[in-house]
Write a structure and sequence with these properties.
- By secondary structure, the chain is an all-alpha fold.
- Helices cover about 55% and strands about 0% of the residues.
- The termini are far apart.
Length: about 160
């Protein structure tokens, strides 16, 4: 048997150029048992349309079945009352985090002690004060004459550059 006409109808069907009568011819053809192997892949498309037509009709007991299904179901979740404070809790938390970051940022910019100075200047002042407080005390020993005169030297100034 020559299936050229069916193949032409399929080409026109996929190009959306067929009439309703031609589509009925295709449905009737693919509802047969003996179909060539080359056209077997299109059988499910047209067989689905036939079975779908049969299943879309609602029975007389449809309403009763739906109402029975609705009455059998238990409420899954009970409604819970949500207060405004619970709804705004994430905003409160975010505001607290921002406040903590701002506080820590301000604390990091200012020193802890109001009298805080540069540590290098404090060290130099402390070192100079210690070197000024050291007085050359006479060495009391038996062999003073053997000791060189410039044995006691002043400490070098840490801020001076050599």
């Amino acid at each position: 048997m020559d299936y050229k006409y069916i193949e032409q109808l399929l080409e026109r069907y996929f190009a959306v150029e067929t009439s309703l009568e031609e589509e009925e011819i295709l449905r009737a053809f693919f509802s047969q048992k003996d179909i060539p192997a080359g056209l077997e892949k299109y059988r499910d498309l047209f067989a689905f349309q036939l079975t779908e037509r049969q299943q879309t009709v609602l029975g007389d007991d449809f309403d009763a079945r739906i109402m029975e299904m609705i009455n059998d179901q238990q409420p899954a979740v009970k409604a819970r009352e949500i207060r405004l404070s619970h709804r705004l809790m994430p905003l409160f938390k975010a505001a607290a985090v921002v406040a903590i970051f701002l506080t820590l940022g301000q604390a990091a910019q200012k020193p802890w002690d109001a009298n805080w100075n540069d540590p290098r200047a404090d060290y130099a002042a402390n070192y100079k004060q210690q070197s000024d407080s050291i007085t050359a005390t006479p060495i009391q020993a038996e062999n003073i004459s053997e000791m060189p005169i410039d044995s006691v030297k002043a400490a070098p100034d840490p801020l001076s550059k050599d």
